[in-house]
Amino acid sequence: MNRPATTLSATPFDTSFTARFTTAEFLRMMESGAFDDMKMELVQGELERMNPPHNAHAGRQARIVIRLAKVVSEELIRGEVGLDLGDDTVMACDAAILDRPVGDIGLLHADDVALVIEIAESTIVRDLGLKRLAYARAGIAAYWVIDGERSVVHVFGEPVAGDYALVGTIRFGEPIAVPGTDATIVID
Fold first, then answer.
1. Which domain holds residue 92?
2. Weakest-pLDDT range from 6-15, 152-161, 164-173
3. pLDDT at residue 51, rounded to an integer
4. What are 74-114's pLDDT values in tens digits?
5. Integer Cα distance of 5 and 121 in angstroms
6. What is the average pLDDT score of the chain?
7. Could you tell me which residues are beta bridge partners of residue 53?
8. CATH of the domain at 112
9. Is the residue at 74 inside a domain?
10. Positive or negative CA dihedral for 90, 94, 96, 102?
11. Where is the Putative restriction endonuclease domain (predicted)?
């Protein structure tokens, strides 16, 4: 009679052999051209490949950056920029407003940024989960997730203990306050 197979471990694979990288190692790989044909992020030491943005995403990103440029100095606006969030995490955001001019440094750091924006055409779970928590842990003061499927902007502020204390939702077409200014913009 046949008996079920037994395994030596309840774990499906041994994670002790998983390669983990530091931000410095990740940056050296980038500089060497290892990721020239792809978009990569480093998330808690692990490499994650990002899908290229689609047309709807690119269009919404351009409109947001143009609207921000009407109320914030151009030297404080960045579109699709890398953020060094600590020793083992480097993420790219779709747009950002800086606290102050920083020139043409490589990656931005959390203390350079007043607002981070993600456009969630196909990444809503990641943007509202993993990225929200990473940005809050890094101390980024304000975070918007542009949710095209629901036609809303998820607004987060006041990072406390690894998450945001202030959470709100603004419908497309309604004014949204731009951090660091007295101005508002409308997202659609």
1. 54-186
2. 6-15
3. 73
4. 999 999 898 999 878 889 899 999 999 888 878 899 999 99
5. 44
6. 87
7. none
8. 3.90.1570.10
9. yes
10. positive
11. 25-178
